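Hi R.,

Here's the chain you asked about this morning:
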Amino acid sequence: MDKIYIYGASGHGLVVADMAKASGYSNIIYIDDGENEHLSFEDMRNNTHIPIAFGIGDNKTRYLLFKKVIDSGFEVATLIHPSAIISPSVSIGIGSVIMPNVVINAKSVIGKCTIINSLSVIEHENIIEDFVHISPNVALSGDITVQAFTHIGIGSCVKQGLTIGQHCIIGAGSVVLENIEENKVCFGSPCKIIRNNK
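And the predicted structure, written out as tokens:
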């Protein structure tokens, strides 16, 4: 375990690279398909023996790149920072990134290519589906379902037993006290629907 690609070279990618170093990788190579000094995916397409981690915060973009990487035969890395506290009964999907000082408690399930960002607390028996982004300092109490492609903003908290539908955006600092249907943009304390997420 020496070399790893980080797909995405902006801010989130830099954090993921630090996590890769903390996990034992010493040779970090950025992939970025924009016009910059970094190598593109096409430059690396034949190096399928080197794992790829995702440094992309946007859920939809991360999904599209994940699919491209898997279809091209690459191994996808799952990164868990050494400071994270994770119950042995937790399941974590391929390609997910668990950031510093995260707590994930008993029997929670983290889907594939999901971000659990720094200082977040995922309590017991939560289901966090695929391609979700849980921002820093989010608190999810027990038995919550966060469906695929949803983004929960920094500092938000969610009452126990609720479901947040897929493709939702929960604004920063929100307090979620009721179930939220899919494709909604919500904000506030208590959290209210602002508009549909198109």
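The CA atoms of residues 84 and 102 lie 5 Å apart.

Let me know if you need anything else.
M.
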